[in-house]
Amino acid sequence: MGLRTVAEAQRPVAERGIAQGQQAIETAAGVSEAYRQAAERTAEDAQALAVSYTHFLRGAQQWQHAYFDMAQRALQRFGGRPQALLRAGSPVEAAQVQRDLYVEMVNSAVASGSTLLQLAGQVAQDAVRPLQERARLHG
What angle in degrees, to the nearest 10, is found between the helix axes of 2-78 and 91-138? Predict the structure, then answer.
């Protein structure tokens, strides 16, 4: 009879432990469900963000290559010009060489700047498109 009495005495403790265990399982299931819903509701938005960042990074890399190509062409184009200054026979001739060099450099900077800004605009448009599509769906 002693064993039965001990078992009966432990029963409320065991039942309380079982109830707490069940409560913990239900709580964990509720938390898990909330996180599952969050992941489900945001999966397509997260994908749109990833695609957007991929477009942006790829475009930034294209912009960087274009910039370096233009800089290299400018160096090749204008690199030999200082020798023309040394060959100038008079101050007027030197000023004319400087004038021509300056005008060409400004024209080149305008053309390069225009190209780079157009490319940057295209990069931005490509990067924002997936986000705009998701925003339209959200109303």
Answer: 150
Structural domain boundaries in the chain = 2-138
pLDDT interval class at 1 (50, 70, 90): low
12-56 tens-digit pLDDT: 888 898 999 999 999 999 999 999 999 999 999 999 999 999 999
DSSP symbols for 25-85? HHHHHHHHHHHHHHHHHHHHHHHHHHHHHHHHHHHHHHHHHHHHHHHHHHHHHHTTHHHHH
Give the contacts of 71 (CB within 8 A, at least 6 positions apart): none
Which residues are CB-contacts of 63 (< 8 A; sequence separation ≥ 6)? 116, 119, 120, 123
CA nearest to 121, candidates 113, 131, 130, 132: 113
Residues 6+ apart with CB under 8 A from 74: 105, 108, 112
Q: How many Å apart are CA 125 and CA 128, to the nearest integer?
A: 5
Q: What angle do CA 48, 50, 55 make, to 5 degrees?
A: 95
